[in-house]
Design goal:
There is one protein chain. This protein has about 120 residues and is an alpha/beta fold. Helix content is about 35%, strand content about 20%. Strands 3-2-1-4 form a four-stranded parallel β-sheet. It is globular. It is built from five helices and four strands; from the N terminus they run E-H-E-H-E-H-H-E-H.
């Protein structure tokens, strides 16, 4: 089990395409929580992200610091630190809203990490 962090800020059309691919191409049985972070979108991105649904028993956490006036979470670095402090699984993934994940992306990444136990970070393109 792992947690996913999805970072978004504006770029509604990218976010729609990216989130649609993430929802369709992720093996949700491998995921504990999807954390969605929006850093103050003003173009409808946040409203779109509020409509995202995940399958049970995956938990969804939507964090929007501007709306919550949580000024300590106003940067990608701050949210990464916030996220890493709160995730329970040893593995997690970060997806930006301009990334289109392919089918089986999570299984392939897990396979590579499993075959290479000394690897502690994996990036895919």
């Amino acid at each position: 089990m792992l947690d996913l962090l999805y970072l978004a800020w504006n770029r509604l059309e990218f976010t729609k395409a990216s989130m649609t691919a993430l929802l369709a191409n992720t093996n949700w049985s491998m995921v504990r929580t999807l954390w969605i972070y929006d850093d103050g979108s003003t173009d409808g991105t946040l409203e779109f992200l509020k409509t995202v649904k995940v399958v049970d028993p995956v938990t969804l956490e939507l964090i929007c610091p501007v709306k919550l006036e949580r000024t300590n979470l106003r940067s990608p670095v701050a949210i990464m630190n916030h996220f890493v402090d709160r995730v329970e699984p040893k593995l997690f993934a970060k997806i930006d809203n301009d990334v289109i994940v392919p089918p089986c992306w999570l299984e392939e990444c897990a396979l590579v990490m499993g075959q290479n136990p000394k690897v502690d970070m994996l990036g895919i393109e």
